TrEMBL record:
Family: Belongs to the cytochrome P450 family.
Species of origin: Meloidogyne javanica (Root-knot nematode worm)
InterPro entries: Cyt_P450, Cyt_P450_E_grp-I, Cyt_P450_sf, Cytochrome_P450_fam2
GO molecular function: heme binding; iron ion binding; oxidoreductase activity, acting on paired donors, with incorporation or reduction of molecular oxygen, reduced flavin or flavoprotein as one donor, and incorporation of one atom of oxygen
Protein name per Swiss-Prot or TrEMBL: Cytochrome P450
Cofactor names: heme
Keywords, comma-separated and alphabetical: Heme, Iron, Metal-binding, Monooxygenase, Oxidoreductase
Pfam families in UniProt: p450 (PF00067)
GO cellular component: cytoplasm
Single Gene Ontology BP annotation: organic acid metabolic process
Length: 356
């Protein structure tokens, strides 16, 4: 992101603004007498607004909320379809795409959702290209990634086959960044809230630590951690390889099954249990476990720095302000995995107490 003129301080401010929208929304609901809150939905909106602000220069609050609701619905349809019978069938037998019943189920359900998401990205790109034709054009809130990309398009040789700054790549680029920047972080935060709601002891330990290190102020900023350096690195397989007895041709797309490592009991005993202490040494300091690879291995994940920033700032600020507990302690929300393209949770509500 830094290569596109998006510095860490700017992003941190946008992240904090979005986080405090969630906090203020929950506080307002409390003041109005509401006893249960759909924090997971607020987190969805928060993460979607953050990545869209960075990419396209606007959030989804206010009048644009309906846009986000539509996009989220399309994403949900798409992710369910990715692991559906029809999707798996076409992977095994591509010729099936010519059968009418397949066209009915595939196009009207999964493919149509994907096309609609691409159309949304394309529409925003075309609007920006048209706006930039005005010699007096100035971005409303500074240069976003789309503006920076289009500026690079204007400054580079479009006939160079090695040049990736081309408008034809933009639609997929914007779509990929929104999908990766919204779903993954939102999903992680929603798992965290549920885990801490069901494990009051761990939540209290977290809050005791926060009380020790946080002063009374609007919010804590991320003053430690890695430099915000999300460079876009190209990494394509460039030769034939043999892995586990399987021959893979150069250019084959490989998606690692990271969960096989994260749920390996030899490395993480009782992997299904929420045990934060597994990452602490005998002195209570962070213990690095090489096999903990939520962002994969090899060259850095393009969204890792942003995701870490969002996770840290949300956890610190939200749980400093609120204590979260089940609306009905005798019948709390259950930890149930819902399998889509990524493992997700069913919607759930929670109750909160204001701490600070």
């Amino acid at each position: 992101m830094r290569d596109y003129g998006i510095d860490k301080d700017t992003v941190e401010k946008q992240v904090l603004d979005a986080i405090f929208r969630v906090i203020d929304k929950i506080k307002n609901e409390k003041e109005m007498g509401k006893s249960e809150h759909s924090i997971d939905r607020e987190v969805d909106l928060m993460t979607g607004s953050i990545i869209n602000q960075i990419m396209l220069g606007f959030s989804f609050y206010g009048e644009r909320f309906k846009e986000f609701s539509g996009l989220k619905q399309l994403l949900d349809i798409q992710q369910v379809y990715f692991i559906s019978f029809w999707s798996l069938l076409i992977e095994m037998s591509p010729w099936i795409r010519h059968i009418p019943i397949y066209v009915k189920h595939f196009y009207n359900y999964g493919k149509k959702a994907t096309e609609s998401l691409f159309e949304y990205s394309q529409k925003e790109i075309e609007k920006r290209i048209e706006a930039r034709k005005d010699p007096n054009y100035l971005p409303e809130e500074g240069m976003d990634v789309l503006d920076q990309f289009l500026e690079s398009v204007e400054e580079t040789d479009q006939n160079d086959p090695e040049n990736y700054y081309k408008v034809k790549y933009l639609t997929a680029f914007v779509y990929d960044m929104f999908l990766a920047g919204q779903e993954t972080t939102s999903n992680t935060i929603n798992f965290l809230i549920l885990y801490l709601m069901l494990d009051q002891s761990s939540q209290e330990k977290l809050q005791n630590e926060l009380d020790k290190v946080m002063e009374e102020k609007r919010g804590v900023a991320e003053e430690t951690g890695e430099e915000f350096d999300g460079k876009f690195r190209q990494s394509d397989p460039n030769k034939d390889v043999k892995i586990g007895g399987h021959n893979l041709k150069a250019g084959t797309v490989v998606i690692p099954q990271i969960s096989t490592v994260l749920f390996d009991e030899r490395i993480f005993p009782d992997p299904e249990k929420f045990i934060p202490e597994r990452f602490l040494d005998e002195n209570g300091q962070f213990k690095k476990i090489e096999e903990n690879i939520p962002f994969g291995v090899g060259k850095s994940c393009v969204g890792e720095a942003l995701a870490r920033m969002e996770l840290f700032l949300f956890t610190a600020n939200f749980f400093y302000k609120f204590h979260v507990y089940p609306p009905n302690p005798l019948n709390p929300p259950k930890y149930e995995k819902r399998q889509t393209f990524a493992v997700k949770l069913p919607d759930y509500n929670c109750s909160v107490e204001l701490r600070n």
